[in-house]
Amino acid sequence: MLQWDELEQSCQTCQKCQISQTRHKLVFGAGNRQARLMFIGEAPGEQENLQGLPFVGQSGQLFDKILQAVSLTRNEVYVANILKCRPPNNRDPLTSEKRECLVYLRNQVWLIKPKIIVCLGRVAAQTIIDPKFKITRQRGSWIERKGYYLTAVYHPSALLRDPSKKRATWEDFKEIKRRYDLL
Ligand code: URA
Ligand code: URA
Description:
Blueprint: H1 4-12, E1 30-31, E2 37-41, H2 46-51, H3 58-69, E3 78-81, H4 95-112, E4 116-120, H5 122-128, H6 135-138, E5 142-145, E6 148-153, H7 156-161, H8 166-182
Parallel strand pairs: 2-3, 2-4, 4-6
Antiparallel strand pairs: 1-3, 5-6
The site of one uracil has 14 residues, from helix 3.
């Protein structure tokens, strides 16, 4: 495992997969490197690719509102994605891309050692928790693995498409905050 400087450097120069060729900015991750709570999204979108920061576009603004609603801030959590580069047209990450890129995310988790890891959306949940994870049925459930508490919630972009998912997400975030406050 690498320390932060070497890790970020190896990401910034990564050319392991095709989408590294079309990135504008790599999205390494952002927030508190001592966070007890970490969020993992899918991959950078258009705005994230332009700015080099996670969740700064439309779904990022909604994510901020949800954090605010449970009195959390970006400064106390860490946010990263399964993929560090934007897939063209926001297509789903390829298995090969996930395999190559997960090395970096695992290294970040190892450095941060958060207590709670929250997967944002189906892709993160299926990559991190269980390949068969059903977001509609299993969001809000918790498991413990290797000393981490893992859960998943709907992706903010799913809430933008279908606002009826907001109520369940509110309940999920209240539970996340409740557990966070107990740490
Ligand atoms: N969607 C994600 O999954 N991650 C981002 O950083 C932005 C949008
Ligand atoms: N579809 C959903 O309904 N939610 C997610 O989080 C991802 C895909």
